[in-house]
Amino acid sequence: METLTEIIRFINFSFSYSGSNSPILKNINLLIEEGDFVLLVGPSGCGKSTLLRCINGLIPHLYNGVYEGEVIVDGEPVKNKSVNELATKVGFVFQNPENQIFMFSVEKDIVFGLENIGLDKTEIDDRLSWVLRALDIEHLRYKPPYELSDGQKQRVAIAGVLAMKPKILILDEPTSLLDPRTALEFISLLKELNRKFGLTIIAVEHRIDLLTNVANRMVVMDKGEIVFNGCLKDVIENKNLNLHGVNVPPVIALQNYLRNEGFIFDAFYLNVKEFSKEIKRRLLEID
Amino acid sequence: MFWLAEGLVYRRQESIIHSLDPRVKLIISFSLFILSLFSSTIFEFIILLSAIFLLGVLSKVLRRMIKTITFSLTFVIMIFVINLLVGYDLIFSIVISLRFIAIISSSSIFFLTSSPDELDLVMRSLHLPYDLIFAFVTAVRFVPVILLDAIQIIDSQRSRGLEIEKGNIFKRIRNYIPILIPLIVQSIIRSEELAEAMESRAYGFSKKRTSYYTLHFKMKDYLILCLHLMLVVLFILLVYFLHL
To answer: Given this model, what pLDDT does residue A255 score?
Structure first.
């Protein structure tokens, strides 16, 4: 069995924005290991985005407030490092890709971050061709941002972040602007990045069913606190999930309902395909 | 305002001039601009303007250049009439008007043939501070985005019953307030998100920011630059020393 190493740790962490009376994050204790794919869910305003901004240092370096406890990323407290230093460790993809593409062409935008960290031409060449290939956007290389579709923009935004070779990739509602098909394609891209390059991924997503087959861990937040945290399968089975404003995928809700009605299933089925197979088997048994 | 934009907005095109190093284009444009400032006879302006129009033909932007000039004719006539009224003679008034045309058309050569991308490279090669270059690049980059925002806001305010083209001139100006305020708010929010994204991409990480892009003069650039400088020197010799 491979040994897992800790990459992010929140220790008794609380934060409140300056000017606000109540803390947005309350007593957070959270451990994320290298290679984890974490699905972070919770109702709007529960502090998800704030939590993410604590990992790459935007909090406390760009936002003022009361900062208690400790956030440790890759062995070092976030407090002691600046955001741009952390940028080589933590890649942050924001909700709106439009506001993350600064330059006139895809290539120039990817190069932007690499120039910032002072790489030389050959290293930039290497990383550029690698990231364009990895995200399958070689054909977009010289295109200006206004000629890209939303899905393509999202890929370019990730490319710009990934070229910095971070260990952690944070995504704040990455699929909210994508249509269902593009969203699915996008999720399978994330899966590949996680499996192939061992990238630790933390994603906020309201459409949980998109990620149930990809993520291995799930964290549920409500009112600034972590209410559930653990292996995705264990968390998603919990019947109290919808009490915290989590949109439980229909296939899970159906199983919960049937269990309440007295049906017994040996396992928990995360997707429609597996569950319908089980139902079909049962129906054939009755015949 | 639109007449000005027509003569200053770059469109992707191919020509001998477009393919030149942007620094050469800047030198050509700027030297013609300076010469137009210092020229003082109709003869000089005939030479200068024909050189400028020749460049317009070579770079296939003559039509848009002329469009800009025709739109600016109102100003040209105004300058001409005011000069006459103040008491200058006819020749002097014509020279001043021609100078105005030469200044506008010479500076539009550079903007019509160089993409914002090339402008970025020129600024880098001049070693301007990167903060300044970045501000310029993002300003140009977000023009279409903010324009789309504006269209969206106009549409949504119209669907709530705002009638922009109604009333006298003061009423019409006031009608734009419900469009401007949301647009400004939206742009501020956008700039906040931009700042976050910039920080997260290591903007300002080290003092020694490298530049992946460098400009290189090609044979063609040297040739055209030499030819241009020779012509400029010839012009100066003819006009200022031989008093043709």
So the answer is: 87
A 161-190: CB under 8 A from B: 161, 164
Which residue bears the tokens 């069913």? A209
B212 CB near a chain A CB, below 8 Å?
Answer: yes
Residue A63, min C-alpha distance to chain B (Å): 10
What residue of B is the nearest CA neighbor of A92? B200
Subunit contact A118:B206, Cβ cutoff 8 A: yes
Can you give the pLDDT at residue B244? Answer: 64
Angle (CA) B91-B95-B98 rounded to 5° is 135
* Helix, coil or strand: residue B215: coil
d(CA B41, CA B99): 10
- The structural domain count of chain B equals 2
Q: Is B134 near chain A, with CB under 8 Å?
A: yes
- Full-model pTM: 0.82
Structural domains present in chain A = 1-89+167-237 (3.40.50.300), 100-165 (no CATH), 249-287 (no CATH)
Beta carbons of B179 and B157 less than 8 angstroms apart: yes
- Give the residue numbers spanning the domain of B81: 2-114+215-241
Is B205 within 8 Å of A85 when comparing Cβ atoms?
yes
pLDDT digits (tens, 9 = 90+) for A66-103: 999 999 999 899 999 888 889 999 999 998 899 999 99
